[in-house]
Specification:
Number of strands: 9
Oligomer: single chain
Order of helices and strands: HHHHEEEEEEEHEHEHHHHHHHH
Structural class: alpha/beta
Strand order of the largest sheet: 7-4-1-8-9
Shape: globular
């Protein structure tokens, strides 16, 4: 019963679990579903991310080391319950907080076939984690999860993410020596924003964006930067800091993205990554964020911090492909 209530609570609104149970002749109020779900979720979070769990993580490393281990991380926003009139950083607190998500993936490398066709890398096994805590707590938890999946013995380890949410510093400090790749989809999204400033006509904008996207994919970022700097220079001289420019103006948007590409351009060598058989897009963690968001993010939803941590832990435990959720429960009793 606790398992069923937890699964209902992590899949849908607590109130939405009442009717299906009533159909089966089980009378349970939504508060019971919430209480059990959050209790089990808190236990899952402690078992996976507590201090003792982190210390024991290397002992759980598999006997067969992964050929390629991929670490992905991203963030999204969930809404916390706050007191009326609460202030944050001198402004009214709307309750929005960042939830960080991570995925650890054992991958099969991509490869080129003799006819030139490229077979993208394939995820063989992935495990998930998420937390409302800051990057200084999220990083060690992602490190522990990677240890459980063979971080120290893997033949190759790479990281995939954008450059937000404090992730560059986390990769550098907690995962020294691994290659960090800036997610191609995120980089292409910035080019789309640049194209919207350069070309006002929709047809020409789309054409410019797809040309730049092709150049980025081919590893010709220098050519894109030359074009962007040329156009941005016609709007204003290069500022010392893009934030000095008026907000939401074309010149600020362009110089901001130019600075981004110049800062992280060495992390965008996509042709070399494909030759190595590495993935270049962090789609797995984006899917994880969507899965958590579908359950936890809506205009009417407000979470306590413990409640958000617990439900996010349930969602991640159930989404992980190593059967960890099934193993924590007794075997099902089947009627004869």
């Amino acid at each position: 019963m606790r398992r069923a209530l937890s699964e209902l609570g992590s899949d849908a609104e607590f109130r939405d679990g009442v009717a299906p149970l009533a159909t089966l002749g089980i009378s349970v109020c939504h508060k019971t579903i919430q209480r059990v779900s959050e209790s089990v979720g808190a236990q899952v979070a402690e078992e996976r991310h507590g201090a003792l769990a982190g210390a024991r993580a290397p002992e759980e490393s598999p006997d067969n080391p992964p050929d390629l281990l991929v670490l992905e991380a991203d963030g999204m926003r969930l809404r916390e319950r706050v007191e009326p009139g609460a202030m944050r950083d001198g402004k009214p607190d709307d309750g929005w907080r960042e939830c960080k998500a991570g995925v650890v993936i054992r991958c099969q490398r991509g490869r080129y076939l003799p006819d030139g066709t490229y077979l993208s890398s394939e995820a063989l096994l992935q495990t998930h984690l998420a937390t409302m805590d800051d990057i200084h707590l999220f990083g060690p938890r992602l490190r522990a999860e990677a240890e459980r999946k063979g971080l120290r013995r893997a033949k190759e380890v790479i990281a995939l993410s954008d450059a937000g949410h404090g992730l560059p510093g986390m990769w550098r400090e907690l995962f020294p020596g691994i290659e960090w790749i800036v997610d191609f989809t995120h980089a292409a999204g910035r080019l789309s924003e640049c194209a919207a400033q350069v070309e006002r006509d929709e047809k020409r904008r789309r054409k410019t964006f797809h040309r730049w996207k092709g150049l980025l994919f081919a590893g010709r970022l220098a050519r894109i930067l030359k074009e962007l700097c040329c156009y941005a220079g016609t709007l204003c001289r290069r500022p010392e800091c893009p934030s000095d420019l008026p907000p939401e103006t074309p010149e600020r948007i362009l110089w901001t993205h130019i600075q981004y590409f110049e800062t992280y351009g060495e992390r965008m060598d996509y042709p070399r990554y494909r030759l190595k058989g590495w993935p270049i897009s962090s789609g797995h963690v984006e899917a994880a964020c969507k899965r958590i968001g579908n359950r936890m993010k809506a205009a009417s939803k407000r979470w306590t911090r413990p409640g958000a941590e617990a439900i996010a832990a349930l969602i991640c435990d159930r989404a992980s492909g190593d059967d960890r959720w099934n193993r924590r429960w007794p075997s099902q009793i089947l009627a004869a």
